[in-house]
Amino acid sequence: MESPFAALARKYRAMADLRRAHAAGGGTATPAVLRALAAEFPGALRELDALTLETLDRRAEALTAAADGTTPAEPWMTWLQGYHGLLRAALRVKRRVARAPVIPDARADALAREATEAAGIPLDAAFVRAVAHPPGGRINGVVFARLGEHLGVAPEAVWDALFPTRRPDRFRPMPTAEPATEAGTAQAPRPPDGGVPSG
Q: How confident is the model over 102-123, as pLDDT tens digits?
């Protein structure tokens, strides 16, 4: 059975392969490939957009060594595992309550139990309600806040470790969506770190 760190290493190798193929003129990955990557590793498309090829390769190598027991696991590896699990849970909750202005206590508790199972981290009704109506419109802010609380680490430190950035506005409210395009659909505002929106 594939270990969590081995799975994460496989993810980074796949993303590095996509980046190299694109650089070699192979075009962009198909929607089906990107959907599969995002389904298994929620938040991976943000990484693909934001991280350098060197970072992707370095993380793949480090995770492979940790999975093999060659080197000790580094904190960011566990943080990343938690991030994918929490975001998976958050997106599942968001799909279930997207149009619910109020969530009854019994419903929130039931969703919290489902989210806990999906994340592998204890979650409660407060998490469910925060995901349903995320402060500033950013689910990632909710995810990093809860992950930091679980780890006993400042959310900003976790964010910087997983998505290195110097921009100070990544926790600010999401800007209003841009006007509709010619195709008649609104363009989702891009998060400040250059990734793809998670909510």
A: 999 999 999 999 999 999 999 9
